[in-house]
Every structure is written in C-alpha cells, then in structure tokens.
C-alpha cells in the first residue's frame, strides 16, 4: 500500500530533475605513454627522489597519482568564462571562490556561483606533463579541507541538482 505513493514520488522527482552532461574525452594515460616511450623508470626514480628529499619546513600535501587518467572533461571557471580540461574524481572536494560551470561554453551547464576551489602553488614536475589542468572533486566533506564544501555537494545544498550523480560510459 505504501509502495505506490513512494514510487510515484520517485517518478515525479526523476521527471523534474535536471540532467547536466559533461562530455568525457578519452586520452592516452600518461603512464601508458611513458611505458611506450621508455621513460617510466626515469619518472619513478625522479618521483621517489622528490618525495624522499622534500624539506619538511614547507607545508606538504601528499598528492595522489593520476598517471592512469584516461578520461577528462571540460569545465569553465570565472567571468568571463575560461575553459579548463579537468579530471573528475571523488577524492578531492575543492575546485576557489568563483563561478564554476560543468561543461563547455555554449552548452547546457550546471552553474555554481561563488564556489570555492583550491589552487596549488607548487607541484612536482610530473604535473606539468599531465594532459589536464586540474582535478574536480565530486567527493564528500571528509575529503575537503576544513570549512569548504565540495562543488557537487554545494550544488545539491543550493537545490541545483538532486543528491546523486552518475557516470555512463560506452565502450570505445
């Protein structure tokens, strides 16, 4: 008896929900490229050297390894819009305080005004060779610095999206 009203409520919620799509672009991962080019062993040696010889008086944030990223998407930040290629992940939760738009200019975009994002001032040399400009966190509060709300959760709290997202990928 209680299932019918719940099913109707879920159907109405689904029908009213906005759908925002960010086209993902398949790229060759940096690890695959380095293995093919014979430079992976040198990269690993450099990476280990940088980690072991880091001066501890500087703030240090352990960085995740994104060498296996194979899909990236576009987001735009700011006014006027500036387009960036981003790796979408569920670990990081911070993107600065500006307008973040999921998608490319002139497409249906999920717009989140006054969204906080982080900008690294110092990165290992390996990040300069990444095929993307940053990492957009779709993660949870537990992955975000204190006092920040991840972009997707911010959009949910403002009523811009339903409290779910999905990734649909077709086979290449």
Describe the structure.
The protein is an alpha+beta fold and 172 residues long. Strands 1, 2, 3, 4, 5 and 6 form a six-stranded mixed β-sheet that branches. Helix content is 24%, strand content 19%. One of its GO terms (cellular component) is lysosome.
Secondary structure blueprint with pairings:
Elements: H1 3-16, E1 25-26, H2 30-37, H3 40-52, E2 71-77, E3 82-89, E4 98-102, E5 110-115, E6 134-137, H4 151-157
Parallel strand pairs: 3-6
Antiparallel strand pairs: 1-2, 2-3, 2-4, 4-5
Question: Poorly predicted ranges (pLDDT <50, ≥5 residues)?
Answer: 59-63, 93-98
Q: What order do the helices and strands follow? A: HEHHEEEEEH
Radius of gyration: 19 Å
N- and C-termini, Cα separation: 44 Å
The CATH superfamily name of the domain at 21-28 and 69-157 is Acid Proteases
Per CATH, what is the topology of the domain at 21-28 and 69-157?
A: Cathepsin D, subunit A, domain 1
Which secondary-structure class do the elements indicate? alpha+beta
In the CATH hierarchy, what is the architecture of the domain at 21-28 and 69-157 at level 2?
Answer: Beta Barrel
């Amino acid at each position: 008896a209680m299932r019918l009203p719940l099913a109707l409520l879920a159907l109405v919620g689904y029908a009213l929900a906005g759908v925002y799509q960010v086209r993902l672009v398949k790229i060759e991962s940096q690890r695959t490229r380095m293995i093919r080019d014979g430079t992976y062993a040198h990269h690993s040696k450099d990476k280990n050297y940088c980690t072991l010889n880091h001066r501890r008086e500087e703030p240090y944030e352990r960085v995740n390894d994104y060498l296996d990223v194979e899909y990236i998407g576009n987001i735009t930040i700011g006014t006027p819009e500036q387009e960036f290629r981003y790796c979408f992940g569920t670990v990081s939760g911070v993107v600065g305080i500006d307008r973040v738009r999921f998608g490319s200019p002139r497409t249906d975009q999920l717009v989140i005004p006054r969204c906080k994002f982080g900008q690294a001032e110092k990165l290992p040399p390996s990040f300069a060779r990444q095929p993307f400009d940053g990492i957009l966190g779709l993660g949870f509060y537990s992955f975000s610095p204190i006092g920040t709300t991840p972009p997707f959760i911010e959009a949910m709290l403002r009523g811009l999206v339903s409290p779910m997202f999905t990734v649909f990928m077709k086979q290449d």
